[in-house]
Amino acid sequence: MNQFDTVDLLRATVGRTLRHAMRELGCPALTDDLLAAADCEFLHRQLQGLPAAPTALSQMFAKAAKNGKVLRVGVSPEGANLFTVRLSIGRGCAVATLAYYRDQWSLHRLDAAESRIRRLSRPLLGALFGAASAAVVALLVITGTSATTDVVAEAEDQGYIVLTQAQYDEQLRTATETAATPTTKPNTTKPTTNLSFTLRAGMTTSDLTAFLKEKGLISDKAAFNQELIERGVDRRLQQKTYTFRSGMTEEELYAVLTS
User: Fold this and answer.
1) Among 220, 219, 223, 218, which residue's Cα sits nearest to residue 197?
2) Which of 16, 23, 223, 243 counts the highest number of beta carbons within 10 A?
3) CA dist 162 to 121, 130, 141, Å?
4) Higher-confidence residue: 190 or 99?
5) Which CATH number fits the domain 194-257, given the four candidates 2.40.128.50, 3.30.1490.480, 3.40.50.150, 3.40.50.170?
6) C-alpha–C-alpha distance, residues 97 and 253, integer Å
7) According to CATH, where is 3.30.1490.480 located in the chain?
8) How far apart are CA 241 and CA 121, in angstroms?
9) Which residue has the higher pLDDT, 135 or 16?
10) pTM of the model
11) Nearest-10 Cα torsion for 238, 241, 245, 251
């Protein structure tokens, strides 16, 4: 089977695990040779806790992909069915697009990868004092039992930042000291700069996020790229020139990209 009968059949797999989708669609199992050398190098740069041997890493990746959640589906110009999957691997997570064509699976592309350490390092002051636009919820983990481990894994999968008691106390102490320190706002206003990017045929979201990172509009290319995919913004991009302003928030960036 190369192409499924209806688009609805593909869409029905969104939100389910890839393993479930494969079973429903009658697809063969994933092979253990999905990753090329460049893919292994990318994952090793972005994530921790991965096996050094490419063969072992590819086996881990295939297993993680089967248990990953299908974020979106599509069909390539060549007729391959595409499944974009969010998967947990090593000490982090990744977003990858797998292609199914003529009864064979292949890795279409690695869209993003993010370690849990990087997620823990995101600012928490806004969550503690309401200064950020979106609150971050911190869960306190006191023990290391297997039950707690299950709770932590589930919480992180839902987007929570998990802290130990010591980490939470340190964040609270730092935030309190910061709030108590008087600040003086400069009298000068930094001029706004317009930044333009033209999305041409053959370009990918990685080209766009690389531009945004270079211009200082985003701090984490992989995380922003993943958010584009999860929001479906990447599917709404057009071949045109997008104009941004220096100092824009991520929500403002999403608004420009979907306009």
Assistant:
1) 218
2) 223
3) 11, 18, 7
4) 99
5) 3.30.1490.480
6) 24
7) 194-257
8) 34
9) 16
10) 0.47
11) 0
